[in-house]
Design brief:
Blueprint (H helix, E strand, L loop, with lengths): L4 H23 L7 H29 L9 H30 L6 H8 L22 H16 L4 H19 L14 H5 L5 H15 L5 E3 L1 H23 L6 H20 E3 L4 H11 L1 H23 L4 H46 L5 H13 L11 H19 L1
Parallel strand pairs: 1-2
Length: 415
């Protein structure tokens, strides 16, 4: 299974939409900015999140297509997700707490504990009421972890039953949620049941369907140039933002427009899932690497924007606000790339090696030899998405080390 560079490029684009949105909204706090511009920025950020959610569902079903009904698959899946998501999120939250304490802000211990364990609480008062954790951008991870748990629970079943149960359950949850928060009310949810039953969770289901169909027709795909793909994606996103600016003009949009924008987001994912392109060019490789680092970019970009803002005010005051947006976005990209390379990857690799060692020892104590068929399926999944964020298993190097450890243990037992 080959790495889908087009999907990684789309992840990079989605992350950049979020970064630009937050940079624009931040500068709007100290520079004259009309309301339409701020609403467009909020829409851009939401667009990036919608694409992220669909990609997340896509990767789930695409990489775990052959793991339904496989013994131990749910546990391995959740372990890989926790390793990938939790450590770097806790680190970003720790940085946020340190900065708040340094500036004299109080620490809400209850909110912090809920934030660390992905429990959506702490409703912010006012007209923009929303459920936000200590690290504001972490609200999407509350949905992610819920979806991971749901996906892991259906891995016990066969593929057809598992996918059917997952999609029907998500649809049912959204339907039940309409009794507590009307579907026409597109404001952020302010209660636990409204949060988990929000229609936005259906985007995961859309991604799951796209991923399953992509695996079913894996040999059928189109070849295209990277320039054409980027041009088409740019055109689609321009159409999306133009529709919002022309016909909506306020945030959040009505439900019928939300559905339209979600369809456009899904089209972007389908396009990138279908296209195979040459990813050897310098610019394309940089975009793919940015897609690899998109999780770090998402978590740390706002902290970087705040740091750049302080330096900007110290150097230029309130002048050149739109140049500030570009500088802040560039700084966020550089910082997140460094965090991904020197923090995120080493930590994840170490934890995967630890899990591999624990599994090897557990196998030795049971006196059994791992099923080579099951191990091959897991290694195929891991290798297919090596370097693709979020990663769903050990790299080839880690997988081979685990295999060698198990083989050595088996050999010693035979002797």
């Amino acid at each position: 299974m080959k790495k889908l560079s087009a999907i990684q490029i789309l992840r990079a684009i989605a992350a950049l939409l979020v970064v630009l949105a937050h940079a624009i909204v931040r500068q709007a706090e100290w520079a004259p900015t009309d309301q339409l511009t701020k609403d467009i920025a909020n829409h851009m950020g939401a667009l990036g999140v919608w694409i992220f959610f669909i990609i997340s569902g896509f990767i789930m079903s695409y990489t775990n297509y052959d793991n339904f009904g496989v013994s131990g698959a749910p546990g391995r899946f959740m372990a890989s997700r926790i390793i990938r998501i939790v450590p770097i999120y806790w680190l970003a939250t720790a940085v946020e707490i340190a900065l708040r304490l340094r500036h004299g802000s109080g620490l809400d211990v209850h909110k912090l504990i809920c934030s660390l364990f992905f429990i959506p609480v702490a409703v912010e008062p006012g007209t923009t009421a929303a459920m936000r954790p200590t690290l504001g951008v972490g609200w999407t991870l509350n949905y992610e972890m819920m979806f991971y748990a749901c996906f892991a629970s259906v891995l016990f079943l066969s593929r057809k039953k598992g996918l059917a149960v997952l999609l029907l359950a998500m649809t049912g949850v959204v339907w039940v949620g309409t009794f507590f928060k009307p579907i026409a009310d597109t404001r952020d949810p302010t209660s636990l049941i409204a949060f988990y039953s929000a229609p936005i969770i259906l985007l995961f289901g859309v991604g799951v369907l796209i991923g399953a169909v992509a695996r079913l027709f894996e040999g059928v795909h189109a070849h295209g140039s990277s320039a054409v793909l980027l041009s088409v994606l740019a055109a689609i996103l321009v159409v999306d933002i133009s529709l919002f600016a022309t016909f909506v003009g306020s945030y959040p949009a009505a439900i019928e427009w939300l559905v339209t924008f979600w369809i456009i987001s899904a089209v972007c994912v389908v396009l990138c899932a279908m296209v195979r392109m040459d990813d050897t060019g310098w610019f394309i490789q940089r975009l793919v690497r940015l897609g690899d680092a998109s999780y770090s970019l998402y978590l740390f970009h706002f902290l970087t924007i705040i740091a750049v803002e302080k330096l900007w005010w110290w150097s230029f005051g309130g002048n050149g606000s739109w140049i500030f947006v570009s500088v802040a976005a560039a700084a966020a990209i550089l910082a997140s790339t460094a965090i991904h390379r020197f923090v995120e990857q080493p930590v994840c690799n170490r934890l995967r090696q630890l899990i591999a060692l624990v599994e090897a020892r557990r196998s030795f104590r049971r006196g059994g030899i791992p099923d080579p068929t099951r191990r091959g399926a897991v290694e195929t999944t891991a290798g297919a998405w090596k370097g693709v964020g979020p990663q769903f298993g050990p790299s080839h190097l880690t997988a081979s080390r685990r295999t060698n450890v198990r083989q050595n243990i088996a050999a010693r037992r035979i002797r």
